[in-house]
Write a structure and sequence with these properties.
Strand content: under 5%
Distance between the termini: 40 Å
Number of helices: 22
Order of helices and strands: EEHHHEEHHHHHHHHHHHHHHHHHHH
Shape: globular
CATH class of the domain at 328-450: Mainly Alpha
Helix content: over 70%
Number of strands: 4
Length: about 450
Amino acid sequence: MGKNPAGGEWHIDPDVLQDLERGEVDPRDYLTLLMRHLAHVCTDCELAIRDFVVRRPEIVEEHTFEGEGWSLDRAFERAVKNVQSYFALQERAEREARELLALPTPEERLRAVREPFGRFRNPALIDAFLERSRHLASFEPSPASELAALALELAFNLPGGAFGTRFRLDRMADAMAHQADALRTMGELRRAESLLAEAWSMAEGTNDLFLLSDIEAYVAALARERRDWCGAAEHLERSEELLTDAGGEPAARVRLRLRRAAVVYYGGDPETASEVARETLELIDADEEPGLDLATRHNLAWYLCELGRYREAAELVRKDEPLALGVEEESVHLRCRWLRGRIARGLGDQETAESTLAGVRDSFLRAGQGYNAALAALDLAELYLVSGRVADVREAAAWTSTLFSVTDIHCDAFAILGLFRQAAQEDSLTVSEIRAVARCLNEVRVHSEAQTEVAS
């Protein structure tokens, strides 16, 4: 890396790039030089560093001022050493994780961690176990809970002098929140609530906004489990605010907002849900995140249908057609067809609506998506009822008995569908009753989905 003879700053040159390509230098050395270069040439960075030094007088000695400029060599050296140290801890964590998980029972693993002056005093090991716990929580919650409990014990045993009390408390709060979410998935809601309360208490005073955002999201999942739609929406909104303040990725913020729109919708407020979905579109770079863009626009069209604004929904679907065709997942195509069928029903195109809704109903059944199949059958029954086709209403209701072969439907949903079939046979169904059945099915499904929801 060469010097600019006019100003003494560092710049990349062809020799540097060749050295990097050949692997003859440590890239971290050049990261240090590039950071120093940025501090010299960027006014915003210069002001940020000055402000940082003013607000943190305890680290002033890490900066040696030189006339109008300054050198940050010692600070950069410390940063590089910290990175190198953490890389080494990560490598050690892989070995330690294998060793701990090779022990036959959770109790033996905890005993190994609790040994006085034991070897397992590694913050990277905590992160590794929490990452595994997060990954397992949706489909293997019991092992996920055990991993989070192990991470909590590791955090508790971290030497405060080496890592700092705040770091130790934050890692404990993080582990508690992960274990609480696994317990929620297992249906142990009271224990989950208690652990989340402890996590909040442990995180009091932290500057880790990502941690606070995660805890809020876990609390939202618990509220959703209990069908507390307003509470879930409030916690998701707070989680997004914290993530925004922390400089979180836009895609993560979008996912939080999509979940908020969904709980608002399930809480019976499609108007607000549509407003949240519209606002969400402003956050998305469609070129960078085409899948998120399509999902958001699809959800918005769905909410508009619930509001009876079928032409607006149809216009959204028409514009999204090219994007939807580029998606490979069959489930996405099915949901798009389902939406088009509902729009056709709302616009009075009964022939198109009937063929489309019957087709997606059968496709959902073949795909093992029981709830979607049941809801599409309800859409079809409503179409027949409005058209005065009473015999077809009975047939559409009777069709739902085929869903007993689908494993993803909760027993409460079968009970609801049983009442629906009975009312259809008695010719006592009304449109409002069909929609009430659909709302009940959605609530049961949301309860089931909340048990596999992982915070973002």
